[in-house]
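User: Could you walk me through two proteins back to back? I'd like the raw sequence and the structure tokens for each, with a short line separating them so I can tell where one ends and the next begins.

Assistant: Of course. Protein one, sequence then structure:
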Amino acid sequence: MNPPCARCKKIVYPTEKVNCLDKFWHKACFQCETCKMTLNMKNYKGYEKKPYCNAHYPKSSFTAVADTPENLRLKKQSKLQSQVQYKEEFEKNKGKGFSAVANTPELERIKKNQEIVSNIKYHEQFEKSKGSSAASAERRNSNDTNEYRTQPERNPVYQPQAPAHQEPPTPVFNPPVAAPLSPPPSTGKRYRAVYDYSAADVDEISFQDGDLIVDVQQIDEGWMYGTVERTGDTGMLPANYVEAV
């Protein structure tokens, strides 16, 4: 038995039947509920089992809810529950330390810039300390050299008085022979190398196990500045490669 049309209530024959929205329609009766435009299976939109075109399809809108005492109470209760849950999660994660941060290209760039700035500041401080230490060492060496070069005072030679009828002998003066000057003793701390080390930069020095490092100055916890007594090279050296003498 042929079913009736959902719009005109007449019998729908198979040649003109449209089965959509759980109903049967004539092809000519399958129209928009608002503008009566004829629709097909590709351009219709169903709303409450009624066909609509795209322009007149009903749009759902939200209604405003009044702030009744019951709604205010539920809002306050949900807010308190959210705060309690936040505190519980905070206490659980309190002793777990910091969360891992992904190494993004931006973080890698910032990290590299910080390393470059740190190296520049380190070399500036090193050059300042190097200049001050060199100036003080030069003044100390000049003072020591002046002390060693001081000549002893000449002792007057006693000349006995000759009789009046004899000519006095010609005095002969023999200047004292100065002792050879020895280099001034090294000042500052002295360390002995316990490992071999090859310089990794132009401002560092190389040494071997057992070499004596003199005039050592502490730069920071990991580096020192001194002179290798065997080679005479002066520069930076790692603090964990030497021990105090």
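----
Protein two, same layout:
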Amino acid sequence: MDVMHDVADGINSPNACLISAPEKETSGIILLAEDKMTANKLNRDIVDASKRSGVKRQYIGLTVGIPEHNQGSQLLHVGQEDIDEELMTVIKSDFSKASLTRQDTKKTKMEYKVLEHNRQLNCALMEMWPQKAYKHQLQVHSTSMLCCILGDHLYSNRVQSVLGVPVLIDPLQAKPGPQKLPKMLREAMNLTASKTANMPLHLHFHQLFIKRPAGDLHITVPLPRYFQRSLQLLGLKMPT
């Protein structure tokens, strides 16, 4: 099925071209151009702006767990591993310069800030600013801080509870599967086992900033309704 054809018809722009979109499970900004010529020009503007650090992406995530620090930055080296027949992103603590040159290992950086948290339910609303886009980067950064994004059924099992204390386990031992949520949080959200297994990923591509000669571009997309509903149930609010 040609999804782009359906989108073009829906916005009454038959020549529309896709510039960028969030990953499959992530909600938020989908950037389109009205035709191929406009798409090529905007792509060039994005490439040029990226060289000058002129592209900023803000994501909003709802996490199970609260980061130790209210704000900060995190630098990780990551790569890809086949885990349970799923190509997953893993942290590379032992790597060579050659693997960086081959780009088998990549350096990723994320800045973050806790916008609100609920200590009783042990959950937080965070904004995240990745320096560059890398597959599942924000899920991996979150789990490395012992916080799993709500609805993350790929990486959340890397954080396990040992005597009530969250610990990070070997990703090769943490197979993808339905997220395990604390009882109090499940009750607050009125979640059954089947609802938990089908919980969507609460990660949203919220804002995009591009500095360009023709005029700066700033796009904001509000949180989807299910995300807003989850915030309400967990006693959290999105700052205005």
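The helical segments are 3-10, 36-51, 97-102, 137-144, 183-189, 193-197, 225-233.

Let me know if you want the two compared in more detail.
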